[in-house]
Design goal:
The chain is built from 19 helices and ten strands. With 494 residues, it is of the alpha+beta class. Helix 2 (44-52) runs parallel beside helix 19 (438-461), helix 3 crosses helix 19 and helix 10 packs across helix 14 (331-350).
């Protein structure tokens, strides 16, 4: 059974990892330096030229992201110059902690979930008859309410009523194959077994209005006109048993996790929603933040740990965007889910759950592949540098120059972006010195703004005046904003 314990890297993977704080405090006052990585510095003037002459938005978060990417690339070059491909298993395990946690949680569930899917087969026919889950075939003639006139829809209805006079429970599948207008026709109109609420209300109501084995009359949904056959238990016994077992397992899992949370007495701090909003606005500023967001009997969730969890979530989850838009009332629930993850991992440790050799080897090999892959794309892997430079100092200079040359091309949209996984970025920053200077970012933005203004003015002066609005130009008088549309209800498709 699929587990969702490890909640799901966001754009933080490409927009920056917090820098190491081991540099001298005096560096923070040196506003002409934006960042340092290894032995290299990124000046405010250079960054200003790069972003000022590019098309990137002139915002602090964007400038910081650019600086963080530069740091990552330069650290890769520095490691390559020192013949370091991060092949230390301890480094790999620490950097790939989310993958390790995922595998550990799976192994833990394999132990505790035994019996969750077992269901007394004697009760299944009764459960099916009661409608705990449903199964149906249908014949659909398309006639969307928003796309057809009333007269046209009435014609479709009459056509289906004519078909209904020829339909029986025995020939339903054959007629559906010939006449239905949706993808289910390939399976004789079968929609399989589905849970309550999975279909639009009109469709589910029509299924429930008839007994297993019966055929309905013609009815309408937003998709068109339907005839439905509620399948008998014998037709779907095997599929129903599997689906019911999965539902039983989901309920058992929910009960288990709720028990963990209740037993540990998870409590969310009153100021947590405000802090979470601040975290998603500026992740880097909270990577070392020890402020407590939630507590339980044996531990707590800090802002820094939440940042780690957010970094472990896949980009498609868009977790930062979701949290930024979420109401404050929804955030405690999210934090409790993270707390549950922590409690599961603690329970796994208590049961001495460890990864088998093969699983651990796969995780480590994935990390090593990511390191070499990123180095190779930037042409700073040890074998690239050794071919052209003999001494370590020469390799450092060569690697740094290759990164700077590539970085200039990247910001001028002449090179493809090299994505460095967050695990690799984290490992580099843990091992080598780096820093991004906030004051330097501000100085670079000031200079970049002036550069952009001059460039915009030059472009504007070269365009002859015209009464005709140019593409992309703002209208002389902006029209009042249109009212925001109401969010659409989720469309459930039979």
């Amino acid at each position: 059974m699929k587990r969702n314990v490890i909640l799901a890297t966001t754009l933080a993977a490409t927009l920056g990892i917090a820098a190491c704080d081991s540099f001298k405090e005096a560096l923070t006052a040196h506003v002409d330096v934006v960042a340092r990585a290894g032995t290299q510095e990124l000046s405010a003037n250079h960054l200003a030229d790069l972003i000022g002459n590019s098309k990137v938005p002139l915002r602090r978060d964007v400038a910081n992201a650019v600086a963080q990417i530069w740091v990552t690339y330069q650290l890769l070059a520095y490691a390559g110059a020192h013949d370091d491909t991060l092949r230390d298993p301890a480094v790999a395990d620490a950097s790939m902690w989310s993958a390790v946690a995922q595998e550990k949680s799976k192994a833990f569930y394999e132990r505790v979930s035994k019996g969750w899917t077992k269901v007394d087969s004697a009760i299944l026919p009764q459960k099916y008859a009661a409608g705990d889950m449903l199964a149906a075939r249908h014949i659909l003639l398309m006639s969307p309410r928003d796309g057809m006139s009333a007269a046209s829809r009435d014609s479709v209805r009459k056509e289906l009523e004519k078909i209904r006079r020829t339909v029986t429970a025995a020939n339903f599948a054959d007629v559906a194959t010939k006449k239905s207008q949706d993808g289910s026709k390939q399976n004789g109109g079968s929609l399989g077994v589905f849970a309550p609420g999975a279909m639009v209300p009109e469709f589910e109501a029509a299924v429930r209005a008839i007994k297993p084995g019966e055929v309905s009359g013609v009815f309408e949904t937003q998709f068109g006109f339907h005839i439905v056959k509620r399948q008998s238990y014998d037709e779907v016994a095997k599929e129903f048993a599997q689906a019911y077992g999965q539902i039983a397992a989901q309920k058992a899992e929910s009960t288990f996790l709720t028990g963990l949370e209740t037993g540990a007495n998870v409590q969310v701090k009153s100021g947590a929603p405000k802090l979470v909003k601040a975290i998603v606005e500026d992740v880097d500023a909270h990577r070392d933040d020890k402020t407590t967001l939630a507590t339980w009997r044996s531990g707590s969730l800090t802002a820094a740990r939440l940042v780690q969890w957010m970094g472990a979530m896949p980009p498609q989850s868009r977790i930062r965007e979701g949290l930024a838009q979420a109401p404050d009332s929804a955030i405690p629930h999210f934090l409790k889910q993270i707390a549950r993850n922590e409690l599961v991992l603690k329970a796994a440790d208590s049961m001495k759950v460890v990864l088998d050799t093969a699983a651990l080897a796969n995780i480590r090999n994935a990390f090593y592949t990511q390191v070499i892959g990123a180095m190779s794309e930037l042409k700073v892997a040890p074998f690239f540098l050794k071919d052209s430079a003999k001494t370590k100092a020469e390799r450092e200079r060569l690697g740094a120059s290759r990164v700077d040359a590539y970085f200039d091309l990247l910001l001028n949209e002449k090179a493809a972006f090299v994505n460095v996984p967050e695990a690799v970025s984290t490992a580099l920053r843990e091992k080598y010195e780096s820093r991004v200077v906030a004051a330097g970012i501000e100085r670079a933005l000031e200079r970049a703004t002036k550069i952009r203004q001059v460039a915009d003015s030059t472009r504007a002066s070269s365009v002859p005046p015209s009464a005709v609005p140019m593409p992309g130009a703002a209208p002389a008088q902006a029209a009042p904003p249109a009212p925001a549309p109401k969010p659409a209800e989720p469309v459930k498709k039979p």
